[in-house]
Amino acid sequence: MTTIVGIFDDAWNVEKAIEQLAAAGFEDSVYDEAIVAEQPGSAGAIPFRAPGSAPERALGENAPNLISKPDRRTIVEAFKSQLGRYNLSHDVIGGYATAFIHDGKFVFVKTDPERAEQAMQILRNCNATRVVRHD
After folding, report:
1. What is the rounded CA–CA span in Å between residue 11 and residue 5?
2. What residues contact 57, with CB distance under 8 A and at least 6 apart?
3. Which of 95, 96, 105, 117 yields a CA-CA distance of 20 to 30 A from 79?
4. Is the whole model's pTM more than 0.90, yes or no?
5. Cα separation, 116 vs 123, whole angstroms
6. What ranges do the domains of the chain cover?
7. 70 exposure class (CB count in 10 Å sphere: 0-12, 13-18, 19+)
8. In 3-state terms, what secondary structure has residue 8?
9. Which pLDDT value is given to residue 133?
10. Which of 135, 91, 89 is nearest to 115 (CA)?
11. Is residue 5 over pLDDT 70?
C-alpha cells in the first residue's frame, strides 16, 4: 500500500478534501490538534480530553474539574504515536510533528499504488500546502 499525506492550513480545505476523497472511494484519516487531543493516547500515554470539552463523569455540582487539559507536548507525542501506523521513518515523523506544532492539519490516505496519483491530485485541488507520497 501507498500512503499519501496532504498537509493543510485550514479546516475548510480539509473538509473539502475529505468529501472529494470519499466520493472517489478513498478512505482517509484526518489529524489536527483538536482531533488528536480527543483521542486516548497510545503506547503508554495517559488518556486526555480536548480543551473545553465536558468531563467524562460529573463529580458533583461543587466539585472542581480535575480533568486537566493536555499540554501541547502531550498532544504532539500522541500525534507522533498515531503516525507509527503508517510505517514512516523517524525523520519523516519528526518533520510532520514540526508541521503539526505549527497548526498543520493532516489527511492521510492509504491506497493502491495505481490510485496514488488520483488521491494526490484531489489533495492538490483542495489546496493542500504540501502533498507527499510514501511507497
Report:
1. 15
2. none
3. 117
4. no
5. 11
6. 2-134
7. buried
8. strand
9. 97
10. 135
11. yes
Q: Is 26 a residue whose pLDDT tops 70?
A: yes
CA dihedral 28, 34, 35, 40 (to 10 degrees): 160
Q: CB under 8 Å to 49, separation ≥6 — which residues?
A: 37, 38, 55, 56, 67, 69, 70
| pLDDT tens column, 73-109 | 888 998 898 888 888 999 999 999 999 999 899 999 9
Tally of residues, the chain: 135
Amino acid at 130: R
Provide the grid cell at 19: 468529501
Residue at 92: amino acid letter: V
